[in-house]
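Troubleshooting entry. The earlier prediction with nicotinamide-adenine-dinucleotide gave an output that would not parse, so I re-checked the input for stray whitespace and re-submitted. Clean input:
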Amino acid sequence: MARIALIPGDGIGPEVVCAAQEVMRAAAQKHGLDVTLDELGLGAERYLRDGTTLTVEDRDRLVSDYDAALLGALGDPRVPDNVHARDILLGLRLFADLYINYRPCKLLVPALSPLRNPDPATDIVFFRENTEGLYAGLGGSFRTGTKDEVAIEESLNTYKGVERIVRAGFEHARATGRTRVTLVDKANVLAHEGGLWRRVFAEVGSEFPEVERDAMYVDAMAMDLVRRPQRYEIVVTSNLFGDILSDLAAQVTGGLGLAPSGNINPGVWALFEPVHGSAPDIAGKGIANPVAAVACVSLALAHLGMEEAAADVDDCILTSIAEGVTTPDLGGDATTREVGRWMAARLLHAASG
Ligand code: NAD
Ligand code: IPM
Ligand code: MN
């Protein structure tokens, strides 16, 4: 029995979560799984209605009553500073201490890559630190609104925080037979945090002698993710660099419409969400690609121990692309809803066949 909270959120969030939900129900039905899905109305609408973002009750209920959550996206042009998105998303990451942001970027079909000669073996997993760095909210703004304004954002890096994400990266390498872990930082300039990350990387890495250690500066890494993305297997990096590089790697492997992520505190709680945002430019048009959200369903099922159902969902994603049942970002003419329905029907059809 698994209880999953659905947080459709804003923009294309409800569209892709609706499709993902159909696929999740079909996968559960096919595999005889007892999965309960409850929808929670967190997001811009609620904030604009009553000023509420994430109450203590919402937060406690989510983490204690549900095994995991699936979130669509948060961000709405009517909330210019996106306070609700920060409160809800960053709030949950911090409250449940979801320190791993697991972001796999695998090239499913070479033709989806914008690169001229994509390597079909391209398959990168980002371990983005998810609770510290420049996201810690440290700093302040002084003489705000004057010509003497000063704005400071400080990057928080703790030994504990760095050690646990680096360890997660190496453990994943060991568990999956990957042979190299790459640390991405800016240690040539950000010497304080760089020193800590590099020391911990060497220390933890020495416990995994079978795994090659590699370090890249973030500027060179941005270049290399375009030049030879196939070189990278597991990337461990800080919160902001991971945010930026995972969008880049998502595009290199087919686009934001395909990239899922998990915010995970192993053994405690997890929240799955596409790497993409609320895409206000295409919201309401029915053309958002639901694959990233459906891939989140697969990550969630696997995380909850339902590996066979997860593999079936992955298979369904591959088949939909192979058969051209795709939204316009991948060159097809299907709607978000049609892609979801097609996948759900395929799962159930395979069950009876
Ligand atoms: P975005 O990811 O929403 O969109 C970037 C581009 O990718 C847009 O052109 C969009 O149309 C396209 N795109 C994104 N997802 C797509 C999909 N599933 N199918 C097809 N095309 C897709 O990034 P943005 O425009 O910078 O951000 C919009 C809002 O989303 C902002 O408020 C931002 O803060 C928020 N955001 C939220 C999350 C989240 O909730 N996890 C993540 C990123 C951004
Ligand atoms: C992401 C998003 C979030 C982040 C925003 C919406 C707070 O971009 O999950 O990648 O920066 O972490
Ligand atoms: Mn992002």
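This one parsed fine. The radius of gyration is 20 Å.
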